[in-house]
Amino acid sequence: ITGADSDFSKVGVKAIDDQTVEYTLARPEPYWNSKTTNSILFPVNEEFLNSKGKDFGTLSPDSILYSGPYLLKDFTSKSSIEYVKNPHYYD
């Protein structure tokens, strides 16, 4: 996915249902299964994405969509990362 084509009927990514994403590859990819664990391929909530616009995914703590046990509190490039407990994560 290079971003050259924004017609999603052509890029090989399709939401099958609320729980399933299907990727269609142009050719065999030996490391595909391991690549799917990279966050760049994770589905994103459309409402959240649209609300953040160009700031989505920046290192500002409020521009990241969280689903794990920790939230980013502060990030200083090449120095420190501080996390806090996600109060909405199950215990």
TrEMBL record:
Gene3D superfamilies the UniProt entry points to: Dipeptide-binding Protein, Domain 1, Periplasmic binding protein-like II
InterPro entries: SBP_5_dom
GO molecular function, one term: ATP binding
The Solute-binding protein family domain, residue ranges: 9-90
Residue ranges the record marks as coiled coil: none
Keywords tagged on the record: ATP-binding, Nucleotide-binding
Name used for this protein in its record: Peptide ABC transporter ATP-binding protein
Species per Swiss-Prot/TrEMBL record: Pseudomonas helleri
